[in-house]
Specification:
Blueprint lengths: L1 H16 L12 H24 L3 H6 L3 H45 L2 H6 L4 H31 L14 H15 L1 H19 L5 H29 L11 H28 L4 H23 L8 H26 L2
Helix pairs in contact: 1-10, 1-11, 2-9, 2-10, 4-6, 4-7, 4-8, 4-9, 4-11, 6-12, 8-9, 9-10, 10-11, 11-12
Length: about 350
C-alpha cells in the first residue's frame, strides 16, 4: 500500500509541474502553446510509447472489443474537452487556483465514479475514504475563497501571464466545468483497464505496460476533439503565423516537456491505481490529484503569482493546502483498512 501511495504522489508531482513551462513561452497566444502541447501530448507521445514499450501494441489495439473501446473513447473525449478547458482556466487564473479548483472538482466526482464500475468497498472503509474526500474538498473551498479575496484586492482583475484583462470568475467557471468533464478519465481507466491488463499480460508485457496501454487509448481518443478545436481556433483567429516566430524552437522544447510530464504523470497514476488494490482507482485518484494541486500551489507561490496579494488570501490558500494534505492521509488510512 505504501508503494502505491508513493507512486501516486510521484505522479502528482509530475502533473503539478507540467504546466509550468507555459509561463516561459514567448511570441505565442494560448492557442499556439496549448495546441502544440496537446498535439504532442495526445498523438505523438502516446503512439511512440505504444510501439516502444508495449509488446504486440498494434495487435492489442485492433482486438479491443467494440463495447469496451467505444465506452472508453466516449469517456476519453469528455476528458479531452475537460483537459483543454483546464489549460484555458490556468491561463485565466494562474497555476495555484487553476489547479486547485479544477482538481477539486475532479477529486469529488472522479474518485467516486470507479465505485459505480467496480462496486463499493466495506462500509467502514468507504466511510473513511469519503471523510477524506470531504476534507480535501474543504481545502478546495479555502483555495476558492483565496481566489475571490485576491480578486477583490485587484479591481482591474489582472490575470497571471499574457492576458491582462481576463476574468477570474470566468476562469473559475471554466475550471469547474472542465473538472466535471475530465472525470471521464477516471471512468475510462476503471472500465478499460481489466481487459487491457489481460491483453497485455497475454502478449508477455510487464505489469506497468498496462498503464501505458490504458493511457494510449485515453489520450488518442481525447485528441479527436481537442486537436480539431485548436485547428479551428488557430484558423479563425489567424494565429498560424505565430509558429514562424523566432521563439518557436524554444517554445517547442517547452511544450514537449509539458506534454511528456502530463502523459508520464497519467501513466504513473494508472500503475499506482493497480498497485493500491481494489479501491486503487478512487484512492489513487485522490492522492494523485491532491499531490499535483499542492505542487502547483507551491510553484505558483514561488513564481510570484501571489506577490502582490495581502496576507489574508494567502492564509486561506495555506489552510486549503493543509486540509487537502490531511484529507489524502485520511484516504490512505481508509484504503489501508482493506
Amino acid at each position: 500500500m505504501i508503494l502505491g501511495v508513493l507512486i501516486a504522489i510521484i505522479a502528482g508531482l509530475m502533473l503539478g509541474l507540467y504546466a509550468l513551462p507555459e509561463k516561459y513561452t514567448k511570441g505565442y497566444e494560448f492557442e499556439n502553446t496549448w495546441g502544440m502541447m496537446f498535439f504532442i501530448n495526445m498523438f505523438i507521445i502516446p503512439i511512440l510509447a505504444g510501439f516502444l514499450f508495449v509488446k504486440g501494441f498494434d495487435s492489442i489495439v485492433v482486438n479491443i472489443p467494440s463495447d469496451i473501446l467505444w465506452k472508453m473513447v466516449f469517456a476519453s473525449i469528455l476528458w479531452g474537452v475537460g483537459a483543454m478547458m483546464w489549460g484555458k482556466a490556468i491561463n485565466h487564473i494562474g497555476l495555484s487556483l487553476g489547479f486547485s479548483i479544477f482538481i477539486g472538482t475532479v477529486i469529488l466526482v472522479g474518485s467516486l465514479l470507479p465505485f459505480l464500475v467496480e462496486g463499493l468497498p466495506p462500509t467502514n472503509v468507504f466511510s473513511i475514504i469519503l471523510i477524506g474526500i470531504i476534507i480535501v474538498l474543504i481545502g478546495v473551498f479555502f483555495n476558492g475563497k483565496a481566489g475571490i479575496l485576491r480578486q477583490n484586492e485587484d479591481k482591474e482583475i489582472q490575470s497571471i501571464g499574457k492576458h491582462k484583462n481576463s476574468s477570474m470568475i470566468i476562469g473559475i467557471i471554466i475550471a469547474v466545468a472542465g473538472g466535471l468533464l475530465a472525470t471521464g478519465f477516471s471512468y475510462a481507466n476503471a472500465f478499460g483497464r481489466p481487459y487491457l491488463h489481460e491483453a497485455c499480460q497475454q502478449a508477455g508485457n510487464p505489469e506497468w505496460a498496462t498503464a501505458v496501454m490504458v493511457m494510449i487509448v485515453i489520450y488518442v481518443s481525447g485528441g479527436f476533439f481537442v486537436i480539431p478545436y485548436f485547428i479551428y481556433q488557430l484558423s479563425s483567429k489567424k494565429l498560424w503565423g505565430n509558429f514562424s516566430s523566432v521563439h518557436t524552437s524554444k517554445n517547442l522544447i517547452f511544450t514537449f516537456i509539458m506534454a511528456l510530464l502530463n502523459f508520464a504523470a497519467s501513466g504513473t497514476f494508472a500503475f499506482a491505481a493497480y498497485t493500491l488494490g481494489s479501491s486503487g482507482n478512487t484512492v489513487g485518484y485522490a492522492i494523485f490529484n491532491t499531490s499535483c494541486v499542492a505542487v502547483a500551489i507551491i510553484t505558483g507561490l514561488l513564481t510570484g503569482e501571489w506577490n502582490k496579494t495581502s496576507s489574508k488570501p494567502k492564509v486561506f490558500l495555506y489552510l486549503g493546502l493543509t486540509a487537502m494534505i490531511i484529507g489524502v492521509v485520511v484516504i490512505a488510512i481508509g484504503n489501508g483498512m482493506q
